[in-house]
Design goal:
By secondary structure, the protein is mainly alpha-helical. It is 54% helix and 5% strand. InterPro entries: CblAdoTrfase-like, CblAdoTrfase-like_sf, PduO-typ.
Length: 190
């Protein structure tokens, strides 16, 4: 259980912060940037949820919880020491990505195939989901960059890759099952 009785600690006033294993790193470190971008995605998703109802709101709620799991995973390096940790770290699981894939497949079954690229827009929810998609892609790029230099749970990278697809398909659902998609017209303004 998390208990926060005090919000500020002053321990980061010099520009460093603690990772989940207690190690102190610069706030601009790639690991902090990766999980900070996941946190930004979660906040962006909170804005999208203002426009969501029903089943999609429930799915977005589950994704928000997953994103906290993902942040917890990314803030805890040294995966090879997981077994000896006092508190086993929370790691992303393949089942979380599998759930996204099932949801993508179910949503996509309702849609006509695309014959053009989709511009971000349409309904308020679709527009916010497109923003979530682009922030998700940035979080994925930062996490992949981190994984090229340090150990990262491969399930974390896979989850982010699939999640951006989820946001794209969900944005089409939010646009009246794709009927209100804003389509790109190549060279339309030449």
């Amino acid at each position: 259980m998390v208990v926060l009785s005090r919000i500020y600690t002053r321990t980061g006033d010099a520009g460093d912060t603690a990772l989940g294993n207690g190690a102190r790193v610069a706030k601009h470190s790639l690991r902090v940037t990766a999980y900070g971008t996941v946190d930004e995605l979660n906040a962006t998703l909170g804005m999208a949820r203002l426009h969501a109802t029903g089943e999609i709101d429930g799915q977005l709620s589950a994704i928000q919880n997953d994103l906290f799991d993902l942040g917890a995973d990314l803030c805890r390096p040294d995966m090879d020491r997981d077994a000896e940790a006092d508190y086993p770290p929370l790691r992303m699981a393949e089942s979380q990505t599998a759930r996204l894939e099932r949801e993508i497949d179910a949503m996509n079954a309702r849609l006509e195939p695309l014959r053009s690229f989709v511009l971000p827009g349409g309904s308020a929810l679709a527009s916010h989901l497109h923003l979530c998609r682009t922030v998700c892609r940035r979080a994925e790029r930062k996490t992949v960059e981190l994984a090229a230099m340090e150990q990262v749970n491969p399930a974390a990278v896979t989850y982010l890759n699939r999640l951006s697809d989820w946001f794209f398909v969900a944005s089409r659902i939010a646009n009246d099952d794709g009927r209100a998609d804003v389509l790109w017209i190549p060279g339309a303004n030449r």
